[in-house]
Amino acid sequence: MDRDRFVSISSAEAREGLVVTPAIFLTGRYLHINVCVQSGGGVRVGLADGQGKVFDGFGREQCEPMAGNCVSCQVQWRNKIRIPDTQFMGIHFYLENADLFSF
Fold first, then answer.
1. Whose CA is closest to 71, among 41, 21, 26, 36?
2. How far apart are CA 89 and CA 80, in angstroms?
3. Cα 95 from Cα 5, distance rounded (Å)
4. Which CATH homologous superfamily contains domain 17-102?
5. In this structure, are residues 31 and 74 in contact, taking their beta carbons and an 8 Å threshold?
6. Residues facing residue 44 across a β-bridge
7. Beta-strand runs (E) in 4-103
8. pTM for the full model?
9. What pLDDT, in 10s, does the model give residues 2-50?
C-alpha cells in the first residue's frame, strides 16, 4: 500500500463524483492532492470563497486535468499554480474513475 492511502473517496466509471469541502483555512501557497486515477478518468479541482463562489481563474474548466497515480500531485490552473491569497476557501473536487485519498 502506498503512503497515506488507507481510506479514499471514490468515483465509479459511469459517473462523475463531486466532493465539496466546507470553507477551510489554507496556510500554503500550493495545493497538492493524493490521487489514483484509473484509465480514462481524471481529477479537476475548483477553489471557492466561503459562500461557494468559485474564484476567477480557479474553476473546474481552468484546472489542468490530473491522471495517473500520484501521492503528491500539484494542482494547476491554466498557467497558475499558486492558490489565491485568500486563505479561507472551499475546495471542489471533480472525480472521474478516480480515488481521492487526501489533500
1. 36
2. 17
3. 17
4. TM1070-like (2.60.290.11)
5. yes
6. 94
7. 9-10, 16-20, 24-25, 32-48, 69-74, 88-102
8. 0.90
9. 667 778 888 877 678 999 999 999 888 999 999 999 999 999 999 999 8
**Phi, psi angle pair for 87, to nearest 5°:** -95, -15
Cβ-contact 12, 97 below 8 angstroms: yes
Q: Which amino acid is at 17?
A: G
Give yes or no for a contact between 103 and 32, defined as CB atoms under 8 angstroms apart.
yes
As beta bridge partners, residue 19 has 93
The set of residues, in sequence order, having a beta carbon less than 8 Å from that of 87 and lying 6+ positions away, is 25, 26, 27
pLDDT in tens, 45-91: 999 998 999 999 999 999 999 999 999 999 999 989 899 887 789 99
β-bridge mates for residue 20, sequence order: 92
Could you state, in order of their start, the residue ranges of all structural domains in the chain?
17-102
